[in-house]
Amino acid sequence: MRVLGADLGGHFIKAALVEGGAVAARETVPTPESRSPADVIAAVAALASRLDPERSVKALGVGFPGMLDSRREKVLQAPNFPLMVGYPFRSALAQACGREVALENDAHCAALGEWAFGAAKDLTDFVLLTLGTGIGGAIVSGGRLVTGAYGKAGELGHLAVAGDAPCGCGALGHAEALFGADALGRAFSEAGIEGDLPELWLRRGEPRLAPLWEKALDALARLIASVSHALDPQAVILGGGLSRGLGLVETLRPLVLRYTAPPFRETFDLRLAALGDDAALLGSALGFALGSDLEFDQLCT
Ligand SMILES: [Zn+2]
Per-residue pLDDT for 94 more than 50? Predict the structure, then answer.
C-alpha cells in the first residue's frame, strides 16, 4: 500500500511517499517561521501535492511533536507550535489536502516505525526514548501502543527524576529539563563552555565538562530505571539526535543499573534505534500502511 507520511519538526517538515515500508520519494522544507496552523497546513499540503501530484494516494499520516487529545484531532501542548494548541489540526489538514489524515505524537510514530522495520522488530514490550530538543517517549506493552485514557501516555521525558529544574512544559524536575538538547545547551553556555553538543559529548572527560554531563546522564539513567521497573520491557530503545553520541549506551548502562533492582538487571536490554531520522516518517505512514483506520485503532490501547 502507498501512503504519505509527514514528520513535523521545529526546524523542518519532512514528507515521504512510503511504499511497502520503504521511502519511495521524499522532500524536506523549512518549517514556516510563523509556525501558525494556516502556514503549517499550507506547507504540508504543498508537500503532499508535490509527492503525489495525481492524488492517487488517499491517506496521509502525520507525526506531531506535542501532546494530542485522545481523538487525535487537537493539539494539547506543543512547545514548538504554541499557536496550534486547541486548533482542530487533523480535520483542517484533511480538508486542505483532500486526503484522509491520521495524526499521532511523533515519538509514537518513531516507535511504530522501529517496531515494524527497525530495532523493535518482533518485540511485544518495549520503550522508545527520542533524545532530541526534548525527550519524547513511547510505550508498547503487550503488543499495543499505549496511549492512555486521555491520549497522552508515553510522555517519559516528563518523569520527575531531576530535582526541581524548571521544564519547558511548565512543571518542575522533569528529565527533559536536564537531558534535553535545549537544557544541555543552556547548561553549557551558562558555564561559559562553547561548542555544539556532539563536540561537547566527545570532550565529556574534560574536568569542566564532566560534572555537567554526569548530572544530565544521571537524570536519564533514573528515568530509564524507573520506566523499566514500571513496565518490565524487553528493551529500552534510544533514538533521536543525541542517541548518536558515540558510546552513549555503554556509558549509560552501568549508571542505569545503579538504580535498577537485581531481578530487572538480568533482563535489562538498552539498545539504539535503527532507523535514524526516518523512524517517525515511516511510522507516521504506518497507521494507514497497516491497512485501515480500524487496524491502527486496534494497535492503540
Ligand atoms: Zn516537563
Answer: yes
Both 165 and 89 in a single domain? no
Q: How far is the CA of 170 from the centre of ligand 1 (A)?
A: 6
Q: Which of 37-41, 142-146, 164-168, 275-279 has the largest mean confidence? A: 37-41
Q: Is residue 155 part of a domain?
A: yes
Domain that holds residue 145: 121-272
Distance from the CA of 38 to the center of ligand 1, in angstroms?
27
pTM equals 0.93
State what percent of residues in the chain have pLDDT above 90.
Answer: 82
Confirm whether 294 is domain-assigned: no
- Rounded to the nearest whole angstrom, what is the distance from the C-alpha of residue 108 to the centroid of ligand 1? 17
Both ends of the chain: CA-CA distance in Å? 24
Cα 146 to averaged position of ligand 1 atoms, centre (Å)? 19
Is residue 159 domain-shared with residue 255, that is, in the same domain? yes
Summarised one tens digit per residue, pLDDT across range 165-181 is 999 999 999 999 999 99
CA 63–ligand 1 middle distance (angstroms): 20
CATH number at residue 187: 3.30.420.40
- How would you write 272-294 as a 3-class SS string? ECCCCCHHHHHHHHHHHHCCCHH
Rounded distance from Cα 49 to ligand 1 centre (Å): 36
Instruction: Please say whether the dihedral angle defined by the alpha carbons of residues 172, 176, 178 and 181, taken in this order, is positive or negative.
Output: negative
Residue 285 backbone dihedrals phi, psi, to 5 degrees: -80, -15
